[in-house]
Write a structure and sequence with these properties.
There is one protein chain. The chain has helices spanning 15-26, 51-69, 95-100, 109-117, 165-171, 245-251, 257-264, 305-322, 327-356, 362-373, 383-386, and strands at residues 7-11, 30-34, 46-49, 75-80, 86-91, 105-108, 125-126, 131-136, 141-145, 150-153, 155-158, 177-189, 202-207, 210-217, 222-230, 242-243, 269-276, 288-290. It is α/β, with parallel strands linked by helices. A hairpin with a 4-residue loop joins strand 14 and strand 15 (222-230). The two termini are 31 Å apart. The structure holds flavin-adenine dinucleotide (FAD). The site of flavin-adenine dinucleotide (FAD) has 33 residues, from helix 1, strand 3 and helix 8.
């Protein structure tokens, strides 16, 4: 059996699901995507793409769209919340291209989704299909949808996000936990803040119980900001998805004036609650598996959630291409390769929440002193992360590819 004879149903048309669909199709599978929404959508805002992710997307034939819409930040700059003092700087481009053969990029999420979707036939994306159940049949899998449709296929891939219905069907219901953090997110037309003279890079401001990141997206026409603050509870009656600019400004009251200027220049501000789950011990049941936030949601404090979903899709395609005669075995291999790596990133992302939000005092001073001499954010120190090769699927057990 070759991958060409495998039928795959991907549930969810987000960044992870569509990347998997493109990669699986290129590996020879017959792929259909089932998305609950009436159209493909990504909530506004930006996304950071490390070279581990952009290299995969470029390899899938998507370089032209990335180069057209994406921004190549020259570096990252970490600053102190109150006085803007530099805590750490690290170069990004062109160093990432030299080291890893692909740039670090910042993009508007909707642009990124459209770029990935452009690599997949629109007629194989079935919109308005909300999955309600899936089961392994031993020699394949069956998925069924709220609209009454049922699909029998060789492999089902649940790429349906943190509230995954596929995950619930395979492993039982478990509510994600509120992570004690909310984000204020906005986009600012750059002409409104031209006088700030911002470098084409990513700036990260850290302070007590909060941090804020900003970078350019949409060919450099918009500045994206996301500011995280800690909260004990998330209460839908109190919080709405759209926050007022005043509320965001109040959350960063007392911070460096540049922060207030940027927030105030946005037309609207969205609020986003962060949810969390513990790592799963396994992702697959027979001919059904999971990828992306469906199986490993992570705090976005390594900027790797979507990047890891992209890696999942490429690895899954490589495993099914190599093991098409035994799809269930190929899914186990995929899971073995991916689990240690994403679990490590989940843990690192959690640790960064504490590290970024230290109250002023001895621990914060020790962190700042360490950052002043360390180069842990430099691309050459992140070889294990950025040098990932999804085609390297030989090891049956042990370290993840790219380690
Ligand atoms: C504020 C914030 C900033 C972030 N920044 C970054 C960053 O800079 N870099 C990075 O790499 N990651 C970042 N992330 C993480 C990243 O956004 C996620 O990890 C990524 O979007 C997950 O992609 P996914 O395809 O797995 O899931 P999703 O994007 O959630 O897509 C799931 C899809 O499945 C569909 N769906 C859901 N249920 C069903 C169903 N029952 N039937 C059919 N379809 C269904 C949904 O409509 C959706 O289209 C950030 C996250 C947040 C919250």
């Amino acid at each position: 059996m070759t991958a060409r004879s495998l039928n795959v149903a991907v549930i969810g048309g987000g960044i992870g699901g569509l990347t998997a669909a493109v990669a699986l199709r290129r590996a020879g599978c017959a792929v259909d995507v089932y998305e609950q929404a009436p159209q493909l959508t990504e909530v506004g805002g930006g996304i950071n793409m490390g070279p581990n992710a952009t290299r995969i997307l470029r390899g899938l034939g998507l370089a032209e769209g990335l180069d057209r819409e994406g921004v190549r930040p020259a570096g990252t700059h970490q600053r102190r919340w109150q006085d803007g003092r530099t805590l750490q700087r690290a170069p990004l481009n062109p160093l990432c291209e030299e080291l890893y053969g692909a740039p670090h990029m910042t993009l508007h999420r909707a642009d990124l989704l459209a770029i990935i979707a452009s690599g997949f036939p629109a007629e194989r994306i079935h919109l308005g299909h909300r999955l309600v159940g899936v089961t392994d049949l031993g020699d394949g899998a069956e998925a069924w949808f709220e609209n009454g449709e049922r699909v029998r296929t060789d492999v089902v891939v649940g790429a349906d996000g943190i509230h995954s219905a596929v995950r619930t069907a395979l492993f039982g219901a478990e509510e994600p936990r509120f992570a004690g953090c909310v984000a204020y997110r906005g986009l600012v037309p750059v002409e409104r803040i031209a006088d700030l003279g911002l470098e084409i890079g990513s700036q990260s401001w850290v302070g007590p119980g909060a941090h804020l990141v900003h970078y350019f997206v949409s060919r450099g026409r918009l500045l994206n900001f996301v500011g995280w603050t800690e909260h004990d509870t998330w209460n839908r009656e109190d919080w709405t998805d759209q926050a007022t600019i005043e509320r965001a400004l109040a959350a960063f009251d007392g911070w460096h004036p540049q922060i207030g200027r940027i927030i105030a220049a946005a037309d609207t501000c969205f609020i986003w609650a962060l949810f969390d789950r513990d790592p799963l011990p396994r992702w697959s049941v027979g001919h059904a598996t999971l990828l992306g936030d469906a199986c490993h949601p992570m705090y976005p404090f390594m900027g790797q959630g979507a990047a890891q979903a992209i890696e999942d899709g490429a690895t899954l395609a490589a495993c099914l291409a190599a093991g098409a005669g035994d799809p269930a075995g190929a899914l186990r291999r995929y899971e073995q390769l991916r689990l240690p790596r994403v679990t490590r990133l989940q843990e690192m992302s959690r640790a960064n929440k504490t590290r970024f939000h230290l109250p002023d005092g001895p621990a914060q001073q020790a962190r700042d002193a360490e950052w002043a001499k360390a180069t842990d954010r430099s691309p050459d120190a992140l070889r294990w992360l950025y040098n990932f090769d999804p085609e390297r699927i030989e090891p049956a057990t042990g370290a993840a590819a790219g380690d």
